[in-house]
Amino acid sequence: MMKDSNGIMTKTSERTMQINIGPQHPSTHGVLRMLVTLSGEQIIKIDPIIGYLHRGMEKMAETRTYLQYLPIVDRIDYLSGFFCSYAYISAIENLINTDIPIKAKYIRTLTMEMNRISSHLLWLGCYLLDLGATSPLFYTFIEREKILNIFEDLTGSRMMYNYYTFGGIKRDIEKELLIRIKNFSNEFLKAVREYEDLITNNPIFITRTKDIGILSKEDATEYSITGANLRACSIPKDLRKDSPYLIYNNLEFSVPIGTISDSHSRYLMRIKEMKESNKIINQCTDWLLSNIEDKEINTKINPLTIKPNGTALGEVESTRGLLQCYIEANGREFPNRIKWRTPSFYATQAINTIAKGFMLPDLMSIFGSLDIIMPEVDR
Question: Please, what CATH class does the domain formed by 57-347 belong to?
Answer without folding.
Answer: mainly alpha
